[in-house]
Design goal:
Largest sheet: 5 strands, mixed, barrel
Helix content: 25-40%
Number of strands: 8
Structural class: alpha/beta
Strand order of the largest sheet: 2-4-5-8-6
Low-confidence stretches: none
Mean pLDDT: 91
Radius of gyration: 27 Å
Strand content: 25-35%
Number of helices: 3
Oligomer: single chain
Shape: elongated
């Protein structure tokens, strides 16, 4: 009789415990994969930039590209607030001899482009990381090609609006050091968030709590008269 009183709660508790342990283990596995990815990004950031060749580089890798900026066809991408100032990313075509143009995110500028914005003339060599192109979704903000305002980084679409020949399907995000000049470039390669350890602790903690609650309930139930 006592066993039957315990069996049903036990059968309910065990699947829940298994799910909690499974979720915790899954987060531990993701933690290992994310740590490996972050180590790979850090190694790529510390290594010299590889020359940008004919083949598309892997996304988020550091490259060096040479060409001439076409400042007459620069556009603004996205929105980004810094303090009280609303700004965007300044994207400029980099024209290369014998190769398709590539769109370069040179960095952040105020929306009104106030302040002195550097626009180097002649051949330049930049260090940057490769950024994959995007496709607008149903919830994406609407681009304004006539106003040269874009919210989705779609290199072919941007190039067509500017009358450019077919560009590379990827873009580059310029890297730079600290300084007050505009555009304000990126300084590091992007890194994904890594909160999997906290999630793993949460799931395993819930599993432990469940075992504790069940143990307290079981002890009281066993003390009850049959």
């Amino acid at each position: 009789m006592q066993a039957r009183r315990i069996l049903l709660p036990l059968l309910v508790m065990l699947p829940v415990l298994a799910v909690l342990l499974g979720l915790g283990t899954w987060q531990v596995q993701r933690l290992g994969a994310k740590n490996a990815l972050l180590a790979e990004i850090a190694a790529g950031e510390a290594a010299p930039a590889r020359p940008l060749g004919a083949a598309a580089p892997p996304s988020w890798t550091k490259v060096a590209a040479t060409g001439r900026f076409d400042h007459e066809r620069e556009v603004l991408l996205g929105l980004e607030v810094r303090g009280p100032i609303l700004g965007a990313r300044l994207v400029t075509p980099l024209l290369r001899d014998g190769a398709p143009p590539v769109l370069v995110d040179r960095g952040w500028v105020p929306m009104d482009k106030s302040g002195t914005i550097a626009r180097p003339a002649g051949p330049v060599t930049i260090e940057a990381y490769a950024r994959p192109g995007e496709t607008a979704g149903m919830l994406s903000a609407t681009d304004d090609p006539a106003g040269r305002r874009f919210y989705t980084f779609d290199p072919p679409l941007i190039a067509r609006s500017l009358g450019l020949p077919a560009p590379e399907p990827f873009g580059l995000v310029a890297l730079g050091g600290p300084g007050g000049a505009l555009p304000d470039p990126a300084r590091t390669l992007p890194r994904p968030t890594n909160s999997h350890l906290g999630y793993a602790v949460t799931w395993y903690g819930l599993a432990l709590s469940l075992l504790g609650v069940f143990a307290v309930w079981l002890r009281r139930r066993l003390k009850e008269p049959a």
